[in-house]
Specification:
By secondary structure, the chain is α+β, with helices and mostly antiparallel strands. It has helices at 14-18, 21-30, 47-55, 70-75, 87-96, 101-104, 108-125, 130-135, 137-147, 151-155, 157-167, 173-192, 203-212, 221-229, 234-249, 251-259, 264-275, 306-309, 344-358, and strands at 33-36, 41-44, 60-61, 127-129, 280-285, 289-291, 294-296, 301-305, 362-367, 371-372, 381-383, 385-390.
């Protein structure tokens, strides 16, 4: 029996997913680390303790898997996320180079143009679904082009990505369905994601180039292709949806951004903090260790609850408020340490392009009640009614001459 405070909940149940913040607040009041008896896992819920565990990769290990149960851990073990050095470092180097800021700069112009075209079209429509028509559009446009999969792979990317995050919870109905989807994805990669079918110069084609030159073992190539498919969409879509929702809920903050575009980066970080797209990943405790006043035994599994840490009252003043002037917003929405989100620079670039396109075109956003996506790991909206008040006349796109449609 654990001596940590117990909190009895169904962490991966529908009711918890729909309204998690009261649970997180209740857990934080009990302590930095609580025990979830239904899962047999510890939950690390306060900011300082989550950050400490993320930094201590010698004790809190990812190589045994990062899902909420043993089935998910074993099924997805060995990819970049669920690996430890030196394998992790090798995978990260191979995968991460195209996602570094200097590499992404070559794509900035066309990403900004795509954002402007999208916002122009939505200003004409005025009413639309903020998730289907806005939050998904730019990530899907960008990632499908850069990842470089054949058409049938691109069409399934959202399904496969959602499935992988369901498996990273527990094997409830969602997790079991996710297993079948990922088995389908693995078969597709083996049969269809071959050097002759991938877009030349794309991220996936580059992986095969590295393998062909002997810079990457051939056995690791499929793992990295999966890594490009699975985490590259849902997290950015989640954060973008939260950004739009908050700007609609907080018109004063949108006015501040329109007056001072230097606040765009702070708005993005606030949206990522509040959304915290990844609710939780787990770690296996490699040796006896004390965290947050709780003695953890070797072999224990701890859940690092990023979504709770990012609303920790001891870290943030008025933590539920969207505040573009918030200082020292060192959130954990992209993780921390060696497993920090490899795609965070692309996510930031996409949201920067989105807000920069909106500033001269959108006077006000009105949002309705969002619907919550039921996913074991990803926190996101499935629907978000949006109405835009556009500036008139619309500012012409960069490829148009004034006065021409």
């Amino acid at each position: 029996m654990s001596d940590a405070p117990h909190y009895d909940c169904d962490f991966y149940g529908d009711d918890f997913i729909r309204d998690p913040q009261p649970h997180y607040a209740a857990m934080r009041k009990l302590g930095a680390v609580v025990y979830l008896p239904r899962l047999g896992n510890y939950a690390v819920v306060q900011y300082s303790a989550v950050r400490e565990a993320l930094r201590n990769v010698g004790v809190y290990r990812s190589g045994e898997g990062v899902a909420g149960d043993d089935v998910g851990c074993q099924f997805l073990r060995g990819n970049t996320l669920a690996s430890d050095p030196p394998l992790h470092d090798q995978l990260r180097r191979a995968m991460g180079e195209p996602l570094l800021p200097r590499a992404l700069e070559q794509h900035r112009a066309w990403i900004e143009a795509a954002a402007e075209e999208m916002i122009d079209a939505l200003c004409v429509r005025r009413r639309f679904d903020g998730m289907l028509d806005l939050a998904r559009y730019l990530p899907m446009t960008i990632v499908t082009k850069l990842v470089g999969l054949p058409e049938d792979g691109r069409d399934n990317m959202l399904k496969w990505a959602a499935a992988s995050f369901d498996i990273l919870g527990v094997q409830n109905d969602r997790g079991r369905f996710g297993m079948e989807c990922i088995k389908e994805m693995r078969r597709w990669i083996a049969e269809r994601a071959t050097p002759d079918t991938l877009r030349p110069g794309s991220w996936t084609a580059r992986i095969f180039d590295l393998s062909g030159r002997g810079d990457l073992p051939a056995a690791l190539a499929p793992l990295l292709i999966r890594d490009y498919i699975n985490p590259s969409l849902d997290t950015t879509i989640s954060a973008t949806g939260e950004l739009i929702y908050q700007l609609g809920q907080c018109p004063d903050q949108w006015d501040l951004i329109r007056r001072d575009q230097s606040l765009i980066h702070r708005a993005i970080e606030e949206a990522v903090r509040l959304a915290t797209p990844i609710r939780s990943f787990t770690r296996a405790v490699a040796s006896d260790h004390s965290l947050g006043g709780v003695e953890l035994k070797a072999g224990s599994r701890v859940m690092l609850v990023f979504a709770s840490a990012n609303r920790d009252e001891s870290r943030y003043t008025d933590p539920d408020r969207f505040d573009v002037h918030r200082a020292q917003n060192a959130h954990l929405g992209f993780g921390h340490g060696i497993h920090m989100c490899v795609g965070m620079n692309l996510a930031r670039l996409e949201m920067q392009a989105l807000l920069a396109a909106m500033v001269p075109r959108v006077r006000r956003l009105h949002v309705g009640q969002p619907s919550i996506t039921l996913n074991n790991t990803i926190r996101s909206y499935s629907r978000l009614p949006v109405t835009l008040e556009a500036e008139v006349p619309l500012r012409p796109r960069r490829d148009q001459k004034p006065g021409r449609a």
